[in-house]
Each structure stands twice: as structure tokens, then as C-alpha cells.
Amino acid sequence: EAGVTQSPTHLIKTRGQQATLRCSPISGHTSVYWYQQALGLGLQFLLWYDEGEERNRGNFPPRFSGRQFPNYSSELNVNALELEDSALYLCASSLELREIQETQYFGPGTRLLVL
Amino acid sequence: AQKITQTQPGMFVQEKEAVTLDCTYDTSDPSYGLFWYKQPSSGEMIFLIYQGSYDQQNATEGRYSLNFQKARKSANLVISASQLGDSAMYFCAMREDTGFQKLVFGTGTRLLVSP
Fold first, then answer.
1. CA distance A88 to chain B (A)
2. What is the pLDDT of residue B77?
3. Chain B residue with Cα closest to A5
4. pLDDT tens digit sequence for B1-11
5. Chain A residues touching B97 at Cβ < 8 A
6. If we measure between CA atoms, which residue out of A104, A112, A105 comes closest to residue A38?
7. B53 contacts in chain A (CB < 8 Å)
8. Do A100 and B52 touch (CB under 8 A)?
9. Residue A70, exposed/middle/buried by CB under 10 A (0-12, 13-18, 19+)?
10. Measuring CA to CA, how many Å separate A3 from each of A24, A68, B38, B97?
11. pLDDT of A60-107, one tens digit each?
């Protein structure tokens, strides 16, 4: 069974541009989560999508946004890129059971570099 | 607010020996889940083991076991019979029942297994 996939693997942008990152969840999973892993800041929760709707977001400015498509894949958009947006962006998926033990399975990540 | 603390930035162990990676947590929610993930240099987060706050027994998954001490709020990962492929970053994470599905991660411990 295929795991979570993300594209692209690497992305280089300049300040002020927009970046679009994509994620396909494990088949049967309906919840998608986005996390940012920046140097020195650890893993920070960004967004949670479930059944096509944004259910929760972390402490990030509105220029971080996204959506979830009917096939449960997801897109993360980062507008007006800043140097500090350089990070590894990890996508995870899970079943929608909303139980404590429901495991989030991660993809390989997209490394975004802002110059 | 939920918080995870990993006090060991780096650990060294020889092949075939056991190693314990420390994790303490703070939460006021009586219902929570604790997770350990492994992150090799490739970046992907690999799920290792889960422990629920109401679980009576410590979780085990192959060579991984979780030493759960609820009163001390600790959830240490024990890796038995270390292998060279165990060299990676290890993250402890927690999800509260009321935490809107997000995982809160510790800062991680880098494990290096030597021959």
C-alpha cells in the first residue's frame, strides 16, 4: 500500500513569490495535516483538513493557507514568501476516527528554500 | 498547554546494546496519547510506537518499548539490540483529547549507533 506522497521534493523560490506544495494521503485516509520543520524551531503544527474543510490551524499568519480536494489530497499555499519560511514541510494523513490513538502517518516532505 | 520535553540532544550507543531516549510531558487533559517517531536524514517521519494515557501496560513494538510512568509524566523510548540503521532523530509527540488532532512535538534526540 502506498504511503503519503508529497511533491515537489525540493522547491526554490525568492522572497515575495508564492509556493504551492502538494500532498496525497494514504488510501482511505480523509484527514490531512501540515507541519513545518524549520531549523531551530522544531516541528510546528500548521493546518488540519478533514472532509474538505479546514478544522484547525496553528499559530501561523494567513499567508499560509491550503485546501483539501474531493479525493482528499491537499495543497498548501504560502504567499509572499519570507526568508524564514525556508523549512521542511511535512504532510501527514490519518483516518477520521478522531480518537486519541489515531496515528498520523507522514510523507517524505518538501524542502522549501527561500532566497 | 501541552508541552513535550526531550532533554538529550544527542545519544551514542554501540551496536547490539540497548538505549533509552527520554521524554517528559505536561498536560492538564486526563486523556492523551503519546507517540514516538523516527526521522532519518531523508526527512520522513516514521511512526514507531503509541501509548495511551489510560493504557495499563507499557506499549511494545518489536525492538521498541515505551517506559510509561504516568505519575512522573514520562514516556521514555527503549530501543533494544541497536542496529546501525537506528541512527536517526527521534521525536516524542503528544496529542490531547481536546487538542483538535494536532501533534505537539519535542525537540528531538539524535541517536548515533556505532559498530
1. 8
2. 98
3. B44
4. 779 999 999 99
5. 100
6. A112
7. 100
8. yes
9. exposed
10. 9, 18, 16, 26
11. 999 999 999 999 999 999 999 999 999 999 999 998 766 767 899 999
